[in-house]
Specification:
Low-confidence stretches: none
Helix content: 25-40%
Mean pLDDT: 92
Structural class: alpha/beta
Strand content: 15-25%
Largest sheet: 10 strands, mixed
Radius of gyration: 19 Å
CATH superfamily of the largest domain: HAD superfamily/HAD-like
Distance between the termini: 50 Å
Shape: globular
Number of domains: 2
CATH architecture of the largest domain: 3-Layer(aba) Sandwich
Length: 303
């Protein structure tokens, strides 16, 4: 029987999301890919420092301690294959068991997400994130100045999500931005019995839910949270939507427009996903954060 990733949570991420390649990237932007390749080759035996997504990957791979692998982490990068050597060597140095990677030397790599059946793509490249989202994959741009995960829960991985335009569609957010808060509240109360359409990160929440159920007795626990600007009575439609999907979150925070940063500091997520830049900037001060570049808050700029 051939090898298959069926049944696993598949996370694809760029080399820069996993490792701190900022110095090397500055050389690439200042000169060209040849200079970048030479520097990476010169540093082949110098392990790269952990990047923003490193703690998340480290914890996710801990789910593979049993006989059945439950998580697959794949490098999916615009790096060239030579630079990919350093990424794999750095992973081995840090004890990350990574086996698969695709390196496209400057070409968009998101086309391989379908073959991988990926549940999440993390990158620092705006275009790749947008393209992955448009292709139907949960994807986020890693905020480059994110504070590292606190590490306070070594045996627990915590992932937090915004609601509208992330777990849910931006249907309600469009009403809010077009007509204001009173109209948004009326809309959500009137539609309380109608589930919200799914947003780009519903597939990831569903995959995490399956992982959570399959690993209840494992060495690592998974905890999820909904962190949203919604407040009562608009909260009810969000909860009813999750119930209709047959999915759960462990915690829900309905903040009514309060700054999310202090609440995320208390929850201490290993990663948080939001569609609005201002929320991402606040969140990045306390935790690793991914900008979900979708919905009405992220129009594609032309020209």
């Amino acid at each position: 029987m051939g090898v298959s990733l069926d049944g696993r949570l598949v996370v694809a991420l760029s080399s820069r999301a996993l490792f701190d390649f900022e110095e090397e990237n500055q050389l690439f932007e200042a000169q060209d890919d040849r200079a970048y390749m030479k520097l990476q080759l010169d540093r082949l035996d110098v392990p790269a420092r952990p990047g923003i997504a490193f703690p998340l990957v480290q914890k996710l791979l801990a789910f593979n301690r049993g006989q059945t692998p439950r998580v697959e982490v794949v490098l999916l990068s615009r790096n060239d294959p030579v630079s990919g050597l350093r990424a794999f060597r750095s992973a081995a140095h840090h004890g990350l068991q990574l086996e698969r990677g695709m390196f496209t030397r400057g070409r968009p790599p998101f086309g391989y997400l379908d073959a991988l059946r990926a549940h999440l793509f993390l990158s620092m490249n705006d275009d790749d994130v947008r393209a992955a989202l448009e292709a139907g994959f949960p994807a986020a741009k890693v905020m480059p100045l994110s504070k590292p995960a606190s590490g306070s829960k070594a045996d627990e991985i915590r992932i937090a999500f915004d609601g509208d335009a992330v777990l849910f569609s931006d249907e309600a957010e469009q009403v809010f931005q077009r007509e204001g808060l009173p109209a948004f509240t009326r809309h959500e109360v009137d539609a309380v019995g109608r589930p919200l359409p799914p947003g780009p990160f519903k597939p990831l929440l569903a995959a995490l839910h399956r992982l959570q159920r399959a690993s209840d007795d494992g060495p690592v626990r998974l905890r999820t949270a909904l962190v949203t600007a919604r407040s009562a009575p608009a909260h009810e439609r969000a909860i009813r939507t999750l119930m209709d999907w047959g999915l759960e979150v462990d915690e829900a925070m309905f903040l009514g427009g309060l700054d999310k940063g202090p609440f995320l500091r208390a929850f201490a997520p290993d990663f948080f996903f939001d569609d609005q830049t201002r929320h991402c900037e606040s969140a990045a001060e306390v935790a690793p954060t991914g900008h979900v570049m979708s919905g009405v808050s992220n129009p594609v700029r032309k020209g």
